[in-house]
Design goal:
Two copies of one chain form a homodimer. By secondary structure, chain A is α/β, with parallel strands linked by helices. Chain A is built from nine helices and eight strands. The first copy, chain A, has a six-stranded parallel β-sheet, with helices on both faces. The termini of chain A are far apart. Chains A and B meet through helix 1, helix 2, helix 5, strand 7 and strand 8 of A and helix 1, helix 2, helix 5, strand 7 and strand 8 of B. Chain A binds a DNA duplex through helix 1 and helix 3.
Chain lengths: 214, 214
DNA sequence: ATTTATCTGTGAAAAATTTCACAGATACGA
DNA sequence: TCGTATCTGTGAAATTTTTCACAGATAAAT
């Protein structure tokens, strides 16, 4: 038998799938769905139901073996165990087109409200209308530290990406979502980095297609 | 010994790493770098050098055992074997803030030029200034088929995402990059889907942080 | 009340992926 | 010319991750 007070760490693939599941459950909850079976989730997530059950089982806690999972309860458990309800605050670096889009869209998703946004151009800072407090990029470290910001979103041009990352890390940020087309690494620092690139995704798609089928 | 005309399919993790490597090599080439060792790539990609060598070895072909890899040669090999030089054409569905950002930025990255863009609002189509041909969303299937577009980028609001995906697939698209906050699945169709979500990435970061350290 | 169909939870088996270890090769320096 | 340090390429081992198979349980139907 295994203790529920397991190793509080899950395999990375499991962790990423559960994070996606969390969002999906939120959507099901909005749609007034009470219960879901692992088989239904299989269709919704493109993850085999075996794997879903295993993932949830690895979490340590789940509902009794009823007909499927209780959507709200499972979501709450996930939020707790994954630390998704911790209410981390986030900042944005770069107010170009993409940054602007995120700045305005962030209002829609209340999960991660922006605590600050930065840009290297004072002019652009003055022209941008938003409720989010704006600062010059040179202030990143200070503001991140003072507001205890946990993660930063980088949407600056390629040549400025590394400096942005370094400033975020210097300020104590623990996570970075990097949308600039350069790869940011921080293997030696205790920082989680996610590099997102449209071109990169298209490359992966092209490669899969090239390997024929699916 | 193994034939170079191996199984033309690689393990998914390898394929994704090699796709990232391709972009990185492009950047190194721009910076006039002639050679890279697997150890240097380790730092640049946050992938262990063992794994990098293995990946390249799995490709089937690589340079002679010299001091590191020839940047240009390796990049060309990758492009060929991964089908990244195939010149696929791509379209964009949704001209909101994010779509607009991609529309204008796409010019910067010449790798995947947009062959068309779509929106559900005629008004917005008329207001948007760009060299990319614009169409109403109802035309997706037709245009995708006629222009032999390989992949679509979805940046529409959540409620419209599924319809956009279905139209792309109906038109014969083989790949989808979905930036809308709903998960699109096409497990039963021969289509590669990449769901990208800022909130999702922040969730993953939060989860990793919660599991303490790194 | 009993049968049947359908679920979850989970140890164990299978498969996939990464890491290791070392042979073979090259460049550089003495 | 020879030795040394540093690379790559790759089979084999180790590890991780997924899949399987089935016990235990519940709800619905007869």
């Amino acid at each position: 038998m295994k203790f529920f007070t397991d190793k509080c760490c899950l395999p990375p693939p499991t962790l990423e799938r559960l994070a996606r599941l969390y969002t999906l459950l939120g959507r099901l909850e909005e749609a007034q769905t009470r219960r879901v079976t692992s088989r239904a989730l299989e269709g919704l997530l493109s993850v085999p139901c075996h794997t879903i059950r295993k993932d949830i089982s690895l979490l340590g806690a789940a509902a009794k073996a009823e007909r499927g999972y209780d959507v709200a309860a499972l979501r709450q458990t996930l939020g707790l165990r994954l630390g998704l309800s911790a209410g981390y605050s986030v900042c944005l670096v770069g107010l170009g087109r993409l940054g602007g889009a995120i700045l305005n869209q962030a209002g829609a998703d209340r999960r991660y409200p922006l605590a600050a946004a930065f840009d290297a151009s004072m002019n652009r800072i003055e022209l941008t209308r938003t409720d989010v407090p704006l600062y010059h990029s040179t202030q990143i470290s200070r503001v991140v530290r003072e507001k205890a910001i946990t993660a930063g979103i980088i949407t600056v041009p390629p040549h400025a990406a590394w400096e942005a990352a370094e400033r975020l890390i210097a300020g104590g940020a623990r996570g970075i979502v990097n949308f600039s087309p350069v790869i940011i690494t921080a293997a030696d620092k205790p920082v989680v980095v996610r590099n997102i690139s449209l071109t990169g995704e298209l490359d992966v798609i092209a490669a899969y297609i090239h390997m024929q089928g699916v």
